[in-house]
Amino acid sequence: xxxxxxxxxxxxxxxxxxxxxxxxxxxxxxxxxxxxxxxxxxxxxxxxxxxxxxxxxxxxxxxxxxxxxxxxxxxxxxxxxxxxxxxxxxxxxxxxxxxxxxxxxxxxxxxxxxxxxxxxxxxxxx
Length: 126
What we know:
6 strands
């Protein structure tokens, strides 16, 4: 429930992206709870808000890389965050298959992006 003229902001993974593949393939197969996300394509979040009657809708893709001091830190974090029930070698192979990892300075970075959409419910009339 959103009051008239109230703003709504949502961010989500994009359908067909490396992150969607990581979540719906690797995490689904190796996570304690599985994962079957229903992700929208680029522009899909904005279209859904417009269809629901929102105004001043804008959608942007933003890079939100995840940075770690080392590969072991990355592996432990991903294993815990996603509830993975496999060994770290399997996690490493999954990350290498689905995501892009780069050396940045004295650490490493996992490329990650999300689609952000904002919209406003029309003001009440009358």
